[in-house]
Predict the 3D structure of the following.
Amino acid sequence: MDIFVIKGGRPLSGACRVSGAKNAVLPAMAAAILADGPVEIAGVPHLRDIGTFEKLLGILGADVSRSEAGDGRETVRIVNGEGRKAEAPYDLVKTMRASVLVLGPLLARYGRARISLPGGCAIGARPIDQHLRGLEHMGAKTSLSEGYIEAVADRLRGAPVYFDMKTVTGTENLMMAAVLADGVTVLSNAAHEPEVCDLARLLRAMGADIEGEGTDEIVIHGVRSLHGARHEIMTDRIEAATLLLAGAITGGDVTALGADASAMGAVLEKLQESGAEVSAVPGGVRVRREGRIRSVNVKTAPYPGFPTDVQAQFMAYMCLGDGFSIVSETIFENRFMHVAELRRMGGRIDVSGNTAAVKGVEGLSGAPLMATDLRASASLVLAGLAASGTTEVLRIYHLDRGYESLEKKLSSLGADIARVKE
Ligand code: EPU
């Protein structure tokens, strides 16, 4: 197994390119199931989760290929095959819950789907009741047997669907089901995330009739069929935030090229409040910081609130603040797995329920650490970059699910970080 070895204490500086967004690529790949022609997604990063999704589409009968443009960026091309199977097996779903994104498209296109029900994961129970209830409102019959959700519907009917909470993949699944349904679907209390908007752009390019994405209410008029399309994927706002925080936590000066400041408002505001200088520069976002970090409070919330996917990284940053910081996690019930590891580096953090009180310290010290999930791993890397001495981050396969060559990007900014075999 690979580990990261980090020698901390070097301010990072320079510019590096942000990759395409994992959480936009996965629904875009699922959307290809809906198309009669090839769907090309440009700017797709090399990530374990995307590899898993390619495998899943292969099992479902699609032909998936990658090609490289001259600039090193890759395009994934997906062509639906004949003799399609409509089953997502446990072996894949257990490694990636986002597999559930094929449920809506399979049902809309083929009238049936059999998907292994995802279990809980490291960050919480993560039920999919909202996905299933929405599909039932649209006329699907769903049942559970042998750990698999079976859904059938001759043809889905447009319907009003009200979500009990903001759910990102729930909104995406229902959007994909509704584009080929008979009639009008109105998704109320829909998620506003930029990744939902990116999916709407692709679906429209495929011929879908959608409006209202990015607001509480998305209205979809079903069409008879969808054609292939080419889609440029949005850049990864979570990776961009992580790179900018790497600059800020080390007292450096980092530009995230390709980062879209308009999709990162809450994070950039908190960086500014903490004393960092944030500016939108041509082609990206730049963050500089000198002096002591000011402690600030953060509370995660659905977009446009502070993203839960940046909570762990921001907590690492707050460990070095000049006072107290209250970090509240409102989206997932178990997303403080990084706390115990940060404490091993000298972080002073008390947790009570979904709230962590972080008392800033003058410095962290390097230690061997265990990565537990994707964003927790990133937070340990950030802490290691700022700490004195050597930090080893074990089990970085978690990190490889969602960060493309993070160690290379950080090295290009001056970090002393290496990937080695354990
Ligand atoms: N929820 C339910 N029932 C549902 C759906 C959601 O109770 O049917 C609850 C969840 O348990 C959670 C909340 O609603 O408490 C929000 O969950 P959401 O459905 O929005 O999460 P998700 O769609 O499963 C996506 C991202 C996550 C990100 C969350 C929140 C993808 C593939 N995943 O998950 O990304 O944390 O939205 O923004 O888009 C990551 O990249 O590290 C990651 C975990």
